[in-house]
Amino acid sequence: MGFGKGCHLHLIDGSAFIFRAYHALPPLTRKSDGLPIGAVAGFCNMLFKYVEGWNGNDAPTHAAVIFDYSSKTFRNEIYPEYKANRPELPEDLRPQFPLTREATRAFNIACIEREDYEADDIIATLAREAREAGGRVTIISSDKDLMQLVGNGVEMLDAMKNRRIGVDEVVEKFGVKPDKVVDVQALAGDSVDNIPGAPGIGVKTAALLIQEYGDVENLLAHAEEIKQPKRRQTLIDKAEQIRISRKLVELDAHTPMDEKLDDLEVQDPKPEELLTFLAQMEFRTLSKRVAEKLGAEPPVIPEPSAAAPAADAAPLPEQAPIDPEKYERVGDAEALNRWVEVIRERGCVAVDTETTSLDEMVAELVGISLCVEPGQACYIPVGHRAVGGEAADDLFGSDELAEGQMALEEALAILKPVLEDDAILKIGQNMKYDAKIFARHDVAVAPIDDTMLLSYALNAGKHGHGMDVLSERYLDHKPIPIKSLLGSGKAAITFDRVAIGDAVKYAAEDADITLRLWQLFKPQLHRARVTTVYETLERPLVPVLAEMEMNGVLVDRDTLSRMSNAFAQKMAGLEAEIHELAGENFNVGSPKQLGEILFDKMGLEGGKKGKTGAYATGADVLEDLAAEGHALPARVLDWRQLSKLKSTYTDALQEHINPETGRVHTSYVQTGANTGRLASTDPNLQNIPVRTEEGRRIREAFVAPEGKVMLSLDYSQIELRILAHVAGLAEMKQAFRDGLDIHAMTASEMFNVPIEGMDPMVRRQAKAINFGVIYGISGFGLARNLRIPRSEAQGFIDRYFERFPGIKAYMDDTTAFAKEHGYVQTLFGRKIHTPEINSKGPTAGFARRAAINAPIQGAAADVIRRAMIRMPAAIDGLPAKMLLQVHDELLFEVDADAVDPVIARVKEVMEGAAEPAVKLDVPLTVDAGQGANWAEAH
DNA sequence: GACATCACG
DNA sequence: GACGTACGTGATGTCC
User: Fold this and answer.
1) Å: A246 CA to C2 C1'
2) How far apart are CA A83 and CA A191, in angstroms?
3) What is the mean pLDDT of the segment spanning A173-197?
C-alpha cells in the first residue's frame, strides 16, 4: 500500500528506548557467555509491549524505528561543543547498539539511521513527507527537542506514561506554539545538549520575549528596546551565540534519505525470525510470551552449564529448569514418609502452604508443598473440595473433600516432627504467614529462613521482595499467576476449589522457586556484609510479630458503632449546609466537583490546577479559603474529617473484628518500608487518629479486657537523639543529657532568646526546623510548613546550619556516600539502597532527601526492633502481652496488679535496646502511660 | 487502577 | 538558572 490520505505513520525514537531500557534494568548478561544484554532485553520488552498495544483506529499503517548513527553529526561542524558534555557511553552499553537494530528487524519493523544526521532529523523529514502526503503521524518519544514538529496532523506519544503530546501540551511546556519552539529553545539553551542560548534567560522568560517579538531575529533586531538592563545587554552581546543555538535546535526536515514512506508499511513479525533472535539472546520469559502471542511453539533455550556462570551472580550448581509438569502429588503416608526421609538427609526444606484466605486468622489449610532441591518438589493436598460432576451443573463444587488426599491430621502428624526439629531448617517466602497457619494446628515451625527477608536485607530500596518480582528478576522465570487458578474480582474462587492437578503445579513451583532463591541469596549475605542485619534484626523478629498478630487487640464494637452513628448524623447536617451554601446538590466527597463549585461557580481566588487538570482542594487550600472567611470550605473541612473517621476507622474497624477471638488482628509487613520500619495492614493500626480530640476518641474503643490494663511505652524524640549522635551535635547531645526541652533549646540557640518564658510561636518554628532536618530540609518545604515567606525560611535554615555545623556536614557526607556507593547505612549496619541518587532532575532531589532521612529513620526502626526481639524473654513469667508497634511506641495488655513491674522491665529493655551493638552518646528515654483503653494509656 | 485526600510516626 | 521539593507508610472514595 502506498502512503497517502488515511494512513498513519508511527516514528519511534529508538535511542530513547535504548537508554530508558538500559537505565531501567540491572546489568543483565547473557547466561551462556556473559555478553551484556540488559538494554537489549528492555528494548525488546518495550517494543513488544508497544506492538501489542496496536489496535483499533489508532493502529499505524506504517512504522519505523529511528536511531542515531553516531554521536558526530553536521551540528558539530556548526558548533564543535554540541553535546560535548555528554558523559561517556557506559562500557557495557556500546556493544548492545547493533543488537537493538537486529531486534527491530526481528520484529519486522523498518529500522532507519543515517550518517551525519540525528534520529531527530530523520523523524522531522519523514514526518514532513507523511504530512505532505496527507497522512497522520505519531512520534513515539517524549523528547522535548521533537516538540517543534507537533501540529498539522503530527502528535507525540510518551509511551511510558501513555500520554499524548499535542499542541496544547507543547504550549504548556514552552509557552508558545510548536512553530516557535525553536526560538524559545534558542534563547533558553539546553545544558543537556550543551546549547549555550542566552545566559540568564530560561524557558519562561524566553517564551515571554518570543510572544512579544515573534521570533529570534526580530527580537535581536529590537534588543535595544528591552527594559531590563541585564537582559538587554545579554541579547546584544550574545546575538551570534543565540543564532547558532537556533541552528542547533532546529531540525533538518530535508535529510537525504534512501527509504521511502511506502517501504515502511506495517507487517506482522515472522514468528520464526523473531523467536530465533529472542532465543539467541536467551530471553526465556519474553520468548514464551511472544510465542504465546504469535501462536507458535516457544523456542528451547538450553540452560547454561555451571562452567560459565553469569558474571554478576554467585556460581550455582547446575540446575534443572523450572518445570511444573515434573512435580509430585503426595497422596498417602507412604509417599510423604519418603519425602520426610530425604528432608532429614538434607537438613533443610522449602515449605509453602496453600489456604483459603490471605487472612491467616481465618484461613483454612488446603495443602502443603515441599522442595528439597531445585526441581524436586511435591504438593500434599489436604483440603481440596470435590468438583461437582459436569452433569450436576454444579458451578460451585461441593463441600465434600476431593478423593486421593491425605487427611489433614495424618499429614500434620508426619510433618510436625520435621517442622519443629531444631536440626532442620525450614525455608519459606514470607514464612510468618505459613508459621501462623501451622501455629493454629499446634505446630511451632522452627528454625526458619525467609527469602523475602534475605532479599530485604540485601536489596532494600532496589526493588520489591514479593516472590513474583524475585523469581523474574533472579531466576528469569515468571511463576504461574495465582489469578490463573483463582480468577479475579467477584468470580474469584478460593484455593480449596482449585483442581488438585493444577494446584500441584502452582504450589510445588512456589516451593521450588523459594529454594532456588534461598540458594542464591544466602551466600550473598556475607559478601554484602548484612549477615548481622539479617540474623539480629530480621530473622528473630518473625516469631515476635507472629505472636503479636495472633494476640490481637480487643476492640469494642459498640463504642465504634455509636461513634459511626454520631458521625453520620453530623455529616448529614454538614452536607445539607454545604449544598445550601453552594446553591446546588453535589457530591461533597468528590474533589473534582468541589473544585468546580469553589473556583468556577463561586469564583473564589486561589484555584490551582494540578497536573491532571483538576483543581487542588487539599486541606491546606481549604484552610486558606476558610481563613479568608468563606463558610463553605470550612464546612467541607469538618465534613471531610468526619468522613475519614467514619469510613476508615469507626466503620471499617468493626469489619476487622475476628468473629472467633472478638479481637482485631493486624498484619505487619516486615519488608514494607525501605528504611526498616514496619508497615501495618488489614487493618492498619499504625495510623489510628490521635492529633485531634474528635479522632483521639476512636482510641477509646481499643480496650483492655476486664481486670487488665493497657500500657503504652514510647521513645521520646528518638530520631532527633539519633541525629544528634550520628551528626555529632555537641550542644544537642548535652541538651538531651540534661533532659532539656529540645525544641526550646534549639530556639534559644538560634534566636538568642532565653528558654524561660519563651514565645510558643518561636518554639514551634524551632520544632518544625528540627523535623525538617530529619527530612532533608529545604527552604521551600519549611516555608510551606510554617506558612512563612521562603526567604525567611531559608534564613532560619542558614542560621541553623551555622549554629549546628555538624548537620550540614552530616547531610553532605551522607549524600556523597550514597552517590559513591549507591546505598546508605544505619548505625546497626542496615543498608538502604538509593538507586536514583545519581539521576538528573527532580528525582535526584527526592533521592537525596530520602538518603539523608533513611539512616535516621532506619536506626530508630532498628532500635525498636531490637527491643521487640528481646521483649518475649524479658516479660516471660509476667502476665503481659505485647500487642502493637507504632514506630516508636509499644502497646501492651497487662494484668492490673502487675503494671508496675511490667513497666519497669519493658522500659529497661527499650532504653537499653541499642546496646551492646551501639553505645549512643545520648540517652534513650521512654515514657509510659496506662489506662483502661488506648486513649488513656497514650 | 490512577489519583487525591488524609490518618499516623 | 530553572525546576520542584520536606521523610516513611496504608486505606478510602471518586472517576475513567
Assistant:
1) 20
2) 9
3) 90
The answer to whether A827 and A862 are in contact (CB under 8 A) is: yes
Q: How far is the CA of A649 from the C1' of C13 (A)?
A: 14
**Which residues, at least 6 apart from A593, have a Cβ–Cβ distance to it below 8 Å?**
A586, A587
Question: Which of A231, A246, A264 represents a domain boundary (last residue)?
Answer: A264
pLDDT tens digit sequence for A500-520? 999 999 999 999 999 999 999
Give me the domain span that covers residue A480.
324-528
Last residue of a domain, one of A233, A248, A264: A264
Q: What is the pLDDT of residues A668-723, one digit of tens each?
A: 999 999 999 999 999 999 999 999 999 999 999 999 999 999 999 999 999 999 99
Question: What's the pTM?
Answer: 0.70
Task: Please name the amino acid found at residue A491.
Answer: A
Helix ranges (H only) for A91-140 are 97-106, 119-132
Which bases of chain B are contacted by protein, using any atom under 7 A from a CB? 3-9
Rounded CA–C1' distance between A198 and C10, in angstroms: 48
Q: Judge whether residue A771 contacts strand C, using its CB and a 7 Å cut-off.
A: yes
Residues A595, A522, single domain; the answer is no
Long-range contact set of residues A141-146: C-beta below 8 Å, sequence gap at least 24: A141/A12, A141/A13, A141/A16, A142/A16, A143/A13, A143/A16, A144/A173, A144/A174, A145/A120, A145/A185, A145/A193, A145/A249, A145/A251, A146/A13, A146/A120, A146/A251
Q: CA of A604 and C1' of B4: distance in angstroms?
A: 20
Bases of chain C with protein Cβ within 7 A: 1-16
pLDDT in tens, A576-602: 999 999 999 999 999 999 999 999 999
Q: Is the CB of A674 under 7 A from strand C?
A: yes
* B9 nearest neighbour residue (CA to C1'): A887
Arithmetic mean of pLDDT over chain A: 91
Give domain status of residue A365, yes or no. Answer: yes
In this complex, the nucleotide whose C1' atom is nearest to the CA atom of residue A775 is C7
Residue nearest to nucleotide C10 (CA to C1'): A684
- A315 has a pLDDT exceeding 70: no
- Flag whether A95 is in a domain: yes
